[in-house]
Amino acid sequence: MEKVAKRSRLKQLVFWLMMIELLMLLSVSSQKIPCRKILAQDSATATDNSPPVVRLQTSNHSVVVDNGLVRVTIENPSGYLMGIKLYNGLDNVLERRNKRYNRGYWDIVWDNSTYDKIETEHLNVITQTDDLVELSFTKTWNSNRRNSIPLNIDKRFIVRRGIPGLYMYAILERLENFPPAQMYQIRIAFKLRQERFHFMALTDTRQRIMPSLRDLNSDRSQVLAYKEAALLTNPTNPQFRGQVEDKYQYSCENKDNKLHGWIADSDKKNPAVGFWVITPSNEFRTGGPHKQGLTSHVGPTALSMFYSTHYAGLDMDTYYKQGKYWKKVLGPVLIYLNSNSTRKALWEDAKRQLGEEIASWPYNFTGSKDYPSAKERGTIRGQLVVRDRYINNKLMQAHSAFVGLSPPGEVGSWQTSTKGYQFWTQTDENGRFEINLVRPGEYNLYAWVYGFIGDYKLDLNITIQPGSKIDLGTLIYDPPRNGPTLWEIGIPDRTAAEFFIPDPYPTLLNTLCNDPADRYRQYGLWDRYTDLYPDGDLVYTVGKSNYSQDWFYAHVLRLGGNSTRIPTTWQIKYNLDNVRFNDPSSLQPYFSTQLIEQVEVGNETVVFLMLLIIKNMEKVAMRSNFIIRQLAFWLIMIKLFLFLSVCPRKIPARKILNHNNTTNSRSPYAVRLETSHRQSVVVDNGLVRVTIGNPSGHLVGIKYKGVDNVLEWRNKPGSRGYWDVVWDKDKYDKMETEHFNVITQTDDLVELSFTKTWNSDNGKSVPLNIDKRYIVRRGVPGVYMYAILERQENFPPTHMYQIRLAFKLAQEKFHFMALSDTRQRIMPSIYDQRTDRSKVLAFKEAVLLTNPINPQLTGQVDDKYQYSSENKDNKLHGWIADSEADNKNPALGFWVISPSNEFKTGGPHKQDLTSHVGPTLLSMFDSTHYAGLDMDTYYEQGKHWKKVLGPVFIYLNSNSNKDSDVRKALWEDAKRQLSEEIASWPYNFTRSEDYPCAQGRGTVRGQLIVRDRYTGNKLVQAHSAFVGLAPHGEAGSWQTNTKGYQFWTETAENGLFEINHVRPGDYNLYAWVYGFIGDYKLGLNITIQSGSKIELGTLIYDPPRNGPTLWEIGIPDRTAAEFFIPDPCPTLMNPTCNHPVDRFRQYGLWDRYTDLYPDGDLVYTVGKSNYSQDWFFAHVLRNGQNNTRMPTTWQIKFNLNNLSETGNYTLQLALASAHYAEIHVRFNDPSSLRPHFSTQLIGSDNAIIRHGIHGLYRLYSIMAPANLFHKGENTIFLTQKRKWRTFNGVMYDYIRLEGPMVLFDDHLAHNRGGFVFDI
């Protein structure tokens, strides 16, 4: 619908009726227009006004495709382009007098300058419709074709309805068995009609009438310094006399080489005709955006260069070795023809067509599966900033930087990369970039920044998959810098354009190079150096000279007598008023080009250089001519080099346990295996004797220090030491196995395997293949245990809620339990849980001891959940058997040691059980404790899964010293052993291929910093942040992940982190930072391979923030520990929870809420209340009459003295736990029927009654319009609505009210949890 004028009511009515009709039409459209754009010509329909259909004619010698605008003739089967007829122009725009293979053709220069025109052998019609014909000309290489390039070739031609031209591309392929080859150049060449095409156009400013091909003959020109350059002495067109012709003067960078061509001026019979090579994308070109290549030149010749060593030389990666598969699609490019009366109109129309082709890329009409559509490609975005620590250490937005994806390689390797695809863009003023339409594949991200030296590379492989949308966040580039700048010459822009470019010789001009931006293209400028410096070389004085006038653009040789060339030495003179003799200096020379030269840098106050550009000179010292000092320095350097040259290989990264160095004199007992027992296997190393059920794999007994069995011998053999799993609908499986295998048997080690393979007949057992492993080592008092669990793709779906190892110890011996330095106690016996000795409290696991066997425990509470621990802390726990009265046996310790948490689920803060009454020890690998149904427990059919759980170490120790604190000695020794196990992880003695050794793992390191834009936008080093690798997922998904491995660490004070010993696999990097809300996720997949050492550089976390802080309650630490935790009921105490850091573990604290708030719910007044005293740790139900529970509503009162009338306020509500809860949020209106916000029903982590100060973390950013607030006093009401379970409730982590963005510039009094804020 176009222009509307004269707005009478009638016309307005008609206008709106038409608009309504248009909207109705759009609303009933059957489907959206595809995101891939279509050229305007593509919309032609089969009406009288539509262009003719595309017709195909084939014969034995040629193929003709005609669309009524152009008639394209291709030789069959060679694939040579023989002719293009433009119906309103020429009968053939190609040179008719040339041979058939020398008009339009692909060619390759390969080994030893061998030339191949890629003649093909077979024709295939890929697509033939009225709208489009696509033809394929192929050739398959075999070993009999030694004289042809070892490539499989598929040349494609496409003619489309309504398009005056043809699209061309090629698919080149090398199989692994092809011989090695070097490929130096790949291109398409077009030789146009010599008598017609005389005008060449490359850009708006580079256009000219061109000499003819005959003008390069010796009778019409003189060859200059090289064969491509000629001085026209007697040209056909006299106006060119005295000009230079050189095809390299018409070169162009890839990023600018999108359109070039020729124009045939009109004559009496034909209008003016244009022939254009349009390249809408550079993804298939080599060398990145700045690689220069040829365009058009005398012939008239037009080129489409895909691949060459021009302007790069032998540094280009031209070698294709045998044994590596390679395939690449070159193109499509469009050969576009147009006609008009003027040159300018033809050029502008070609530019318009280029715009349409770019908008339509990638094309949707190609018929090759090797050319992905837009939907099959991906996008990557981010922001690049620069930190130059000797400028101001602030981040600078890297505007106009070039950022690109290129095949994995070293920093800057994109410049010489040829084999893969590249995708580049430029950043905006803020350093933001978005690279669209990236082909699936593996890439690195590279960049360089105008004004800064060096190259940036994100030290991480980026995997693009169909539909990928990767957000990298903010990337920091630290350019090379060793000290402050003393002086500099030039601008770091990768060119010499800013230096002095002399006037050319008046007799060697090319008028196409007269534009100031192109004057460096003039011929012979290098010889002007000798003219300008006839008596001596260039001397540049810092502070006086000007590089745009006094620094010659190229450091070249000097012309000598008899046409000789002499090396040159340039000088840079400068003053140092303050000289330091103790620090080294750095000279930063950067070259925009180099031709096999050796650069020499002297060590005097005058620096002598053979170089092209000096980009920077940094901190300078040791500039005095103290020969002795310098001699000593170089002697030290020589010694260092000699030392390094003879250094042996590094000590392997994997550390060995001290036990591994035990000799026969220290450990006389070899490890012995006994398999003669009917239903058991025995392994004995002289310290422990381990008995395992055969083939069940249950741990039946451990003999140690005179105790025949430290396990409970009265239990059945399957209930002493065993693996178990809880699966579908509370099914229970003890993972009893069926086969026994000896994996390793030596004097130093025995490893045993107990396996079971699931099949559909085992419907009552968990659908898993099970391999339980036991390792007993020489000189080690204990046993290592691990399991390899596997699900094949055809296994039925299942839920697995819990996987663990359980040990039931001898009841009459083990009475003392130790979990940490502060959590140790004499424990009740299992008999104390009987109804005659205890009283069950609110749930079956919690009992009040009323008549325990040990009277000193009377009146205490015992609850296994009080002994839980976070994964990061759950590395050591166990039991102690005190020495017997007759001294028959010493005191014994039985310990579960977990040296790594990589195989545990839910990340470092997942809480789980440890030891409890039994005496029982657990090694928990997977459970829903403190997380509930949010844990990912479902294993679907059709997906293979395998995971190694463990190894964990069952360690036994003893002490018979009656004069010492025996329990403490045993505990300290167990801690020492834990340290040795951690230092030795990953172990080097396991014999499973599924457990990689240290050398088979990788490392990731980097730095995490925080940018909170409403606290000054300054960068804050994320100290003590948790940073980890976990399987792919959303931000924070690591909390509920169960299927993969996780690797976590804490950052140092400066935010640096290093994650070591990471198993090979695909991960995301996650983090959270103490003091900041939200979760960080690097928007990039990280692939760890054997030996990977990935450097991520500096990562920036922007935590959720919509405005300035008005007030806050709590500390963002993912727990409720900072809030008020009441004293427990005196009659419901457990002494292991008396320590201040463990007081939240006491039983029944939730009921203290009703005691503290008997007449009304909690009211918190910002500026007066203190969250550590006035904010109860858990928002729970209130106890009512007749054992009922009532919902509770908490209030937060605060003042707004200066209310904003526009914008939104934001309530940041972070929860540390939720159990079948629903929080309703209301602003100033507690009686409103509907809340302003509801969390809906959330959570089942049960952390409140299981004595966990947190469960799963949740964050809600609640937008509140300004009209919900009042000037002056305001109240936020938080109601926990659900009451159908006894223990519904939440624990808050942190609450913050943020003002609208418009308030940011106002003066804010920002203080954590303390004051009323004046806004």
From TrEMBL:
Catalytic activity reported: Endotype eliminative cleavage of L-alpha-rhamnopyranosyl-(1->4)-alpha-D-galactopyranosyluronic acid bonds of rhamnogalacturonan I domains in ramified hairy regions of pectin leaving L-rhamnopyranose at the reducing end and 4-deoxy-4,5-unsaturated D-galactopyranosyluronic acid at the non-reducing end
InterPro entries assigned to the protein according to its UniProt record, in alphabetical order: Carb-bd-like_fold, Gal_mutarotase_sf_dom, Galactose-bd-like_sf, GH-type_carb-bd, Polysacch_Lyase_4, RG-lyase_II, RG-lyase_III, Rhamnogal_lyase
Keywords: Lyase, Secreted, Signal
GO molecular function, one term: carbohydrate binding
GO cellular component: extracellular region
Compartment annotation: Secreted
SUPFAM superfamilies reported in the protein's UniProt record: Galactose mutarotase-like, Galactose-binding domain-like, Starch-binding domain-like
GO terms classed as biological process: carbohydrate metabolic process
E.C. numbers: 4.2.2.23
Enzyme's top EC category: lyase
Any single Pfam family the record assigns to this protein: Rhamnogal_lyase
Domain of life, source organism: Eukaryota
Tagged with keyword Cytoplasm: no
Domain Rhamnogalacturonan lyase: 400-471, 485-582, 1024-1095, 1109-1297
Family assignment from sequence similarity: Belongs to the polysaccharide lyase 4 family.
Official protein name in the record: rhamnogalacturonan endolyase
